[in-house]
Write a structure and sequence with these properties.
By secondary structure, the protein is α+β, with helices and mostly antiparallel strands. It has 3 domains: 104 residues, Alpha-Beta Plaits (2-Layer Sandwich); 170 residues, subunit c (vma5p) of the yeast v-atpase, domain 2 (Up-down Bundle); 81 residues, Alpha-Beta Plaits, CATH 3.30.70. Helix content is 51%, strand content 14%. Helix 2 runs antiparallel to helix 7.
Length: 378
């Protein structure tokens, strides 16, 4: 079963790291046996001063929100593109060639991208800059695709809209039109409920209307399209009188070459849309992996920073990935809490205590251990 939510936690060491890990595994196994538990290895990072860590902690919260938002934005774009193609998922979301869930549960720091010898502030800035560039590129690509899609939609709407707005070039044939020095054929849109009125009155809407010249070409759910032939010199007065009676005279000029050109343009737009959608979809799959990897490295830095601020130096903590269900999350958190020292636990224990919530800034996600939540679905 796919997991959409992971908990990243760090626990203070009780004895060795191995002993703490075994205690966590056995505790989770007893309380929620169906909850997978994995180590989340974080390398030794350049810590800096306590003041710099405090400032970095605040900035990491904002940076995480930005990078997480971009990650979900790319994923939603992939979902939209798949729906637009009317096809099942054509690819699997992956990071560095492995499925997302495997990447999270088998996370390994990428020292080539983010050298551990660099200050954490520098790594965070690099992540934000790279993600910002990818987001800008996403906006440009989506805009290009959307513009073509909008143009095609507009043309299709004209082809399939009501007679009052649709393109008539696919409906009217050369034989339907008379266009001489003295005679002209007009196209009139008539409400389906007013057709009897039209047929009984069109010859009287102006002088010099050719008797029995009106013929119905087609109709839709709302309107019917009629022709009427009259002398060119009275065309303007006929249009005015027809409009007063509720009949719409459509401007139309028969242009076989123009009609062919529109068909070619529509075919080109359809081809461009399909190519851009496929290109954007492939790009999003690739970029999702890059952005998600950046997000997880940012989470690792947050976990490392908060653990030092919580447990002190030198860094002695166990970082783990937990995947509890909604029903078992509370039990898993209780196990993590028990693994914290009694002194630490007594300070953070009462989540429901009003005064405690005041100290915690009203944040319900404050625990006696460091905890981050990774929601894959946004």
């Amino acid at each position: 079963m796919a997991v959409n939510k992971y908990l990243l936690v760090s626990l203070p060491l009780h004895g060795s790291e191995r002993q703490t890990w075994e205690n966590l595994q056995s505790g989770v196994s007893r309380a929620a046996f169906d909850t997978p538990t994995y180590k989340f290895p974080i390398p030794q990072l350049r810590t800096g001063t306590l003041d710099s860590l405090l400032v970095l902690s605040d900035d990491l919260t904002k940076a995480n929100q930005i990078v997480e938002t971009v990650t979900h934005k790319v994923r939603r774009q992939i979902d939209d593109l798949e729906r637009a193609s009317n096809a099942d998922s054509s690819g699997v979301l992956s990071v560095d060639g492995v499925p997302v869930d495997h990447y999270v549960t088998r996370f390994a720091w990428d020292d080539a991208k983010y050298p551990t010898m660099a200050p954490m502030r520098e790594i965070v800035d690099t992540i934000q800059e790279n993600v910002a560039k990818l987001e800008d590129d996403l906006k440009v690509r989506v805009s290009e695709y959307s513009n073509v899609k909008t143009s095609l939609t507009t043309m299709l709407r004209k082809q399939g809209g009501s007679m009052a707005v649709r393109d008539l070039s696919t409906v009217v044939k050369p034989d339907d039109i008379i266009n001489t020095e003295h005679l002209v054929t007009l196209l009139v849109v008539v409400s389906k409920y007013s057709q009897k009125d039209w047929l009984g009155s069109y010859e009287k809407l102006s002088t010099f209307v050719v008797p029995r010249s009106s013929h119905k070409l087609t109709e839709d759910n709302e309107y019917a399209l009629y022709t009427v032939t009259l002398f060119r010199k009275v065309a303007d007065s006929f249009k005015t009188t027809a409009r007063e009676r509720g009949f719409l005279v459509r401007d139309f000029e028969l242009d076989p070459e123009g009609q062919a050109s529109k068909q070619e343009e529509m075919a080109k737009l359809q081809k461009d849309q399909d190519e851009l959608r496929q290109s954007l979809q492939q790009w999003c799959y690739q970029v999702y992996g890059e952005v998600f990897s950046a997000w997880m490295h940012l989470c690792a830095i947050r976990l490392y920073t908060e653990s030092i601020l919580r447990y002190g130096l030198p860094p002695k903590f166990l970082a783990a990935v937990l995947a509890p269900s909604t029903k078992t999350e509370k039990k898993v958190r209780a196990v993590c809490e028990k693994l914290c020292s009694e002194t630490n636990s007594s300070f953070w224990h009462s989540e429901d205590d009003a005064s405690m919530m005041g100290l915690a800034g009203g944040d319900p996600d404050v625990y006696p251990y460091v905890s981050l939540t990774v929601n894959l679905a946004g």
